[in-house]
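User: I've been trying to design a sequence by hand for this structure and keep getting stuck. Would you show me what you'd pick, starting by listing the structure so we're on the same page?

Assistant: Good idea, let's start from the same input. This is the structure you sent:
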């Protein structure tokens, strides 16, 4: 992909929407996604059985996730170097693979795969207001493993009894974002409802709804995102495997 001064930045960019208004990389990435990733997936869809095609999608998504993790870890090592010449390439590869995952995930939605991904048009889920944190999850069996992640990240966010441990509250925002992206939880957008459910379940948290509107979560909190992504990715792969076996 062609480099361009508009994309040179002292700040690591993680989404195509963060690129400059006239950055040519936007068109380059979008065209490549359409002509390479989507075109290749369409061919595989035609020649493979449904289980084999889902396996292809899972492998491609996992490959893209690993590349994103590699680029992000490299950025964390070099984040203090404002003029790091390698940052531009890291931005390109991170955003490219993120868009790659988005494109591949759409095939799961189209085929109503065994992963049971929830379509955005599911009005019943959108309108249903959960009364507890457990009701927020799409499947009851997701609850325990997803909450355990809060006990496993370093430093721990909660203890064994689900008590808040005075860690950065913004980390809970990242947790909700990652659960919503998979998606493991229902598409509830009201931050007041989300905050109420979290505060009711995690004793002492008292997170304010405005946390879910802040764009800058801080470097200390952002460093936890990758750890959560890795653990949730492992869980997602296990869940898909169990779904295929059943």
């Amino acid at each position: 992909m062609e480099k361009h001064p508009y994309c040179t930045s002292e700040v690591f960019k993680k989404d195509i929407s963060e690129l400059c208004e006239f950055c040519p990389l936007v068109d380059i990435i979008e065209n490549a996604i359409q002509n390479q990733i989507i075109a290749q997936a369409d061919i595989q869809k035609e020649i493979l059985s449904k289980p084999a095609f889902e396996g292809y999608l899972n492998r491609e998504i996992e490959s893209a996730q690993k590349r994103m993790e590699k680029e992000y870890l490299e950025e964390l090592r070099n984040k203090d170097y404002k003029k790091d010449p390698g940052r531009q390439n890291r931005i390109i590869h991170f955003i490219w693979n993120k868009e790659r995952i988005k494109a591949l995930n759409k095939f799961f939605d189209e085929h109503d795969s065994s992963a049971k991904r929830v379509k955005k048009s599911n009005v019943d889920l959108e309108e249903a207001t959960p009364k507890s944190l457990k009701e927020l999850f799409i499947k009851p069996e997701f609850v325990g493993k997803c909450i355990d992640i809060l006990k496993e990240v370093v430093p721990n966010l909660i203890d064994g009894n689900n008590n808040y441990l005075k860690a950065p509250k913004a980390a809970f925002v990242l947790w909700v974002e990652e659960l919503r992206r998979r998606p493991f939880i229902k598409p509830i957008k009201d931050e007041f409802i989300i905050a109420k459910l979290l505060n009711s379940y995690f004793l002492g948290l008292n997170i304010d709804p405005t946390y879910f509107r802040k764009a800058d979560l801080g470097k200390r909190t952002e460093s936890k995102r990758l750890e959560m992504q890795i653990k949730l990715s492992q869980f997602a792969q296990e869940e898909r495997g169990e779904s295929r076996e059943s």
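That's my pick for every position. To get oriented when you compare it with your attempt: The CA atoms of residues 2 and 34 lie 17 Å apart. The chain has two domains: 5-111, 123-245.
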